């Protein structure tokens, strides 16, 4: 019994650090458009469609999932606001569940959506990590 308990305790930090497969993730998307426009969000991966969500200024939408065994999980979202549409991979295992990535591992991945860029907030309150839109016609 004590050995099993120790094994569970020992794996908790590894899972949250992105070192084990099937790590639990929580993605939060917050509408921070400076124009205070409504943001239409549609997120999906190969097997799951999160539906179309309308976010007013300051509103948020969230979803949870587990990274797949091969650590290739990707969730892509399309974003629309008056006069603009854009797409962005809101979660990519190679970026968001990889301790060697520039931005590090997130178990709670909080994204603030601004007109010029989607930004992943930092848990320590530091400058967020902002990225270019993947598609911005």
Structure commentary:
With about 140 residues, the protein is mostly beta strands. It is about 15% helix and about 40% strand. It contains two helices and nine strands. It has helices at about 1-15, 95, and strands at about 25-30, 40-45, 50-55, 60-65, 75-80, 85-90, 110-115, 120, 130. The protein has a five-stranded mixed β-sheet with strand order 4-1-7-8-9, with no helix packed on it. Strands 3-2-5-6 form a four-stranded antiparallel β-sheet. A hairpin with a 2-residue loop joins strand 5 and strand 6.
Order of helices and strands: HEEEEEEHEEE
**Which regions are unreliable across 5 or more consecutive residues at pLDDT < 50?**
3-16
Q: Would you count the extended β strands for me?
A: 9
User: What Rg, in angstroms, do the CA atoms define?
Assistant: 16 Å
Number of helices: 2
Helix content: 10-25%
Measured by DSSP, the beta-strand proportion falls in 35-45%
Which term fits the overall shape? globular
Q: What does the average pLDDT come to?
A: 88
Main sheet specs = 5 strands, mixed
Main β-sheet, spatial strand arrangement = 4-1-7-8-9
Structural class: mainly beta
Distance between the termini: 58 Å
Supply the key terms.
137 residues, mainly beta, five-stranded mixed β-sheet, four-stranded antiparallel β-sheet, 9 strands, 41% strand, secreted, S-protein homolog, self-incompatibility
Quick description:
The chain has 137 residues and is mainly beta. 14% of the residues lie in helices and 41% in strands. The radius of gyration is 16 Å and the shape is globular.
């Amino acid at each position: 019994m004590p050995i099993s308990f120790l094994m569970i305790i020992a794996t908790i930090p590894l899972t949250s650090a992105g070192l084990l497969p099937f790590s639990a993730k929580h993605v939060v998307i917050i509408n921070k458009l400076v124009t205070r426009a409504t943001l239409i969000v549609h997120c999906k991966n190969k097997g799951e469609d999160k539906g179309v969500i309308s976010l007013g200024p300051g509103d948020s939408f969230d979803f949870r999932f587990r990274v797949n065994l091969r650590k290739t999980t990707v969730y892509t979202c399309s974003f629309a606001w008056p006069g603009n549409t854009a797409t962005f991979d809101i979660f990519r295992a190679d970026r968001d569940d990889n301790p060697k990535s520039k931005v590090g591992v997130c178990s709670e991945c909080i994204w603030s959506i601004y007109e010029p860029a989607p930004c992943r907030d930092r848990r320590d309150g530091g400058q967020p990590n902002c990225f270019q839109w993947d598609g911005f016609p």
